């Protein structure tokens, strides 16, 4: 008989939003930001190891991080955390039967908060 | 007043182990005809080897689910007007996440078996209010339950893309709806491949042609499973 | 999988781990908000130099909060990673390797983080 078409390599299609609705955007964003933040977490822990190597190493590291490229990267992390965290609230509460029928409105509302917060952080970071 | 449109059907073809391809058929249609009507005419007048499934023609049997221009549709109730324009293309493909038997026809055996084993009843008492699960056993009038087992939700689910082990929206919704969470059903739904696998993309609810709202039902099932576990933990029956 | 009834018990993501994933996610937000408030509203001038950081860590609330944050984030991130991997339906053998790898990675990074916090506190 015919084979099941599912295979692990189909994971590429997780991230294909064509012909999909809003919920898929939420799923895709949550997955990408979740994985991105996980990579960042471990990089961050490694970088903080500079603290153990004393004042010169750490302050040198901070000077490096202050250039615009690193600031932009840092903003990306803040944006990812906001999107992922706020979307996480949507997943959490709908999973317990709260606002299940209103997940789209919830998503749009939470993402509006995320965008406002991202813009706020961007202005703050680049004008200080 | 009938209109006439010229549309091109682009139909997925696959036989046995041969490589798949698309056949194009240009034809005149009335835009208020359904996508399935066009497919039937292609079969009747152009290519008798075209394989597709359908039966009732009025959204009851659930056999005619296909991918129309990339979106899951019950083709017997999808007007051509709603998926293309005059001079446009209608690309018809078999549903995703099911084995293709031939052309547009897929093998839904496993899915039907799962529906049965979670206790989904195709025919329910009239007192059974489908949308939020009220049930009146005294009522002897019967009606068809909302879920017509078309499989569109499973085809649309991103999580069902990577493994056939995930039970899928309709099956979890079926368990929620039947309400009888006996140990056999729990084994299936309170597991890695059951209710806890869902990642809230809500595509199932988006494509369901029958107002089952499977995503809502999965969330409600989770609530039921969690409260069962809490009660069990505190020794409440 | 032909029969579609794969219920072999294994350490997949059941109710407990799923719940922990949601719960740690929620707690991460709570601690993150506290962290931001402490960091930006209570500490004046920010934490930009080594000396600032060391001084900041002298208040015992800070290392406790940072360690809690570390444990929650690492747990949540690795469990999230695991549920992505589980969507690929690894065989039991591969799943055992994944479990082992994630536990080692998790405990390793928590131990490393705590060590780092203690080093900073000790420099005060
Ligand atoms: C800020 C608070 C956070 C909240 C409320 C939160 C919430 C959640 C929730 C509810 C899920 C489950 C998604 C699902 O099952 O579909 C999840 C997944 C995940 N989270 Fe978080 N999270 C937060 C922060 C983080 C951080 C800081 C990281 C990484 C360091 C992270 C990494 C992940 C990963 C890798 C996943 C799996 C992605 C997926 O299932 O698609 N999360 N998060
Ligand atoms: S839940 Fe809806 S989409 Fe899924 S099989 Fe039933 S009727 Fe079809
Ligand atoms: S042919 Fe029966 S549902 Fe479409």
By oligomeric state, this entry counts as heterotrimer
* CATH class identity of the largest domain in chain B: Mainly Alpha
Mind telling me which CATH architecture of chain A this is?
Answer: Up-down Bundle
**Run of helices and strands of chain A:** HHHHH
CATH homologous superfamily of the largest domain in chain B - what is it? Alpha-helical ferredoxin
CATH H-level homologous superfamily name of chain A: Fumarate reductase/succinate dehydrogenase, transmembrane subunit
- What is the overall pLDDT average of chain A? 91
The proportion of residues in beta strands of chain A is: under 5%
Main-sheet strand order of chain B equals 2-1-5-3-4
Instruction: Supply the helix-strand structural class of chain B.
Output: alpha+beta
Provide the CATH topology of chain A: 3 helical TM bundles of succinate and fumarate reductases
Helical coverage of chain B, percent range? 25-40%
Number of helices of chain B: 7
Q: Identify the CATH architecture of the largest domain in chain B.
A: Orthogonal Bundle
Arithmetic mean of pLDDT of chain B? 92
Largest sheet of chain A: none
Q: Total strand count of chain A, please?
A: 0
Supply the helix-strand structural class of chain A: mainly alpha
Number of structural units classed as domains of chain B? 2
Task: Indicate the percent of residues in helices of chain A.
Answer: over 70%
CATH topology of the largest domain in chain B: Fumarate Reductase Iron-sulfur Protein, Chain B, domain 2
Short note summarizing the structure:
With 128 residues, chain A is an all-alpha fold. Chain A has helices spanning 11-14, 22-48, 55-65, 68-95, 103-127.
3D architecture notes:
The complex is a heterotrimer of chains A (128), B (237) and C (124). Chain A contains 5 helices and no strands. Chain A has 128 residues and is mainly alpha-helical. Chain A has one domain: Up-down Bundle (3 helical TM bundles of succinate and fumarate reductases), CATH 1.20.1300.10. Chain A starts with 10 loop residues before the first helix and ends with a helix. Chain B has helices spanning 35-46, 109-117, 152-156, 169-178, 183-189, 203-207, 214-233; strands spanning 5-13, 21-29, 65-68, 71-74, 89-93, 100-102, 105-106, 123-125, 142-144. The model of chain B has no long low-confidence stretch (mean pLDDT 92). Chain C has helices at 15-42, 50-56, 61-86, 92-122. Helices cover 74% and strands 0% of the residues of chain C. The mean pLDDT of chain C is 86. Chain C is built from 4 helices and no strands. In chain C, helix 1 (15-42) packs antiparallel against helix 3 (61-86) and helix 3 packs antiparallel against helix 4. The chains are: A mainly alpha (128), B alpha+beta (237), C mainly alpha (124). Chains in contact: A-B, A-C, B-C. Bound molecules: protoporphyrin IX containing FE, iron/sulfur cluster and FE2/S2 (inorganic) cluster.
């Amino acid at each position: 008989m015919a084979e099941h078409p599912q295979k692990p390599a189909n994971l590429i299609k997780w991230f294909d939003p064509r012909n999909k609705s809003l919920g898929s955007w939420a799923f895709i964003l949550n997955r990408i930001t979740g994985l991105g933040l996980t990579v960042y977490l471990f990089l961050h822990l490694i970088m903080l190891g500079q603290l153990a190597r004393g004042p010169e190493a750490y302050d040198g590291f901070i000077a490096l991080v202050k250039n615009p490229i690193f600031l932009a990267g840092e903003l990306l992390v803040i944006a990812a955390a906001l999107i992922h965290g706020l979307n996480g609230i949507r997943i959490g509460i709908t999973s317990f039967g709260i606002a299940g029928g209103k997940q789209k409105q919830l998503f749009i509302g939470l993402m509006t908060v995320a965008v406002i917060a991202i813009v706020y952080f961007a202005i703050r970071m680049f004008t200080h | 007043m009938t209109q006439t449109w010229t549309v091109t059907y682009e139909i997925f073809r696959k036989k046995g182990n041969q490589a798949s391809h698309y056949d194009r058929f240009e034809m005149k249609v009335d835009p208020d005809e359904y996508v399935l009507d066009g497919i039937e005419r292609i079969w009747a007048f152009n290519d008798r080897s075209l394989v597709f499934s359908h039966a009732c023609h009025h959204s009851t049997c659930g056999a005619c689910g296909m991918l129309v221009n990339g979106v899951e549709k019950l083709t017997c109730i999808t007007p051509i007007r709603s998926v293309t324009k005059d001079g446009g293309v209608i690309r018809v493909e078999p549903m995703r996440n099911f084995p293709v038997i031939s052309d547009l026809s897929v093998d839904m055996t496993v899915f039907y078996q799962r529906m049965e084993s979670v206790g989904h009843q195709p025919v329910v008492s009239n007192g059974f209010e489908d949308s939020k699960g009220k049930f009146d056993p005294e009522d002897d009038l019967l009606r068809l339950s909302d879920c017509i087992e078309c499989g569109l939700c499973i085809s649309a689910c991103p999580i069902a893309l990577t493994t056939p082990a995930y039970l899928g929206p309709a099956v979890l919704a079926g368990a929620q709806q039947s309400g009888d969470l006996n140990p056999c059903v729990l084994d299936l739904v309170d597991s890695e491949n059951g209710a806890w696998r869902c990642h809230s993309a809500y595509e199932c609810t988006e494509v369901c042609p029958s107002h089952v709202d499977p995503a809502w039902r999965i969330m409600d099932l989770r609530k039921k499973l969690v409260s069962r576990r809490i009660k069990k933990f505190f020794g409440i029956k | 999988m032909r029969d579609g009834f794969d219920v072999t018990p294994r350490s997949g993501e059941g109710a407990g781990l799923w719940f922990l994933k949601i719960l740690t996610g929620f707690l991460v937000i709570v601690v993150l908000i506290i962290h931001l408030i402490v960091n930006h509203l209570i500490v004046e001038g920010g934490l930009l130099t080594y000396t600032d950081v060391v001084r900041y860590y002298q208040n015992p609330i800070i290392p406790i909060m940072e360690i809690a944050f570390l444990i929650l984030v690492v747990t949540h991130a690795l469990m999230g990673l695991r549920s992505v991997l589980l969507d690929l339906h690894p065989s039991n053998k591969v799943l055992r390797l994944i479990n082992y790898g994630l536990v080692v990675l998790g405990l390793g990074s928590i131990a490393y983080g705590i060590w780092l916090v203690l080093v900073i506190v000790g420099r005060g």
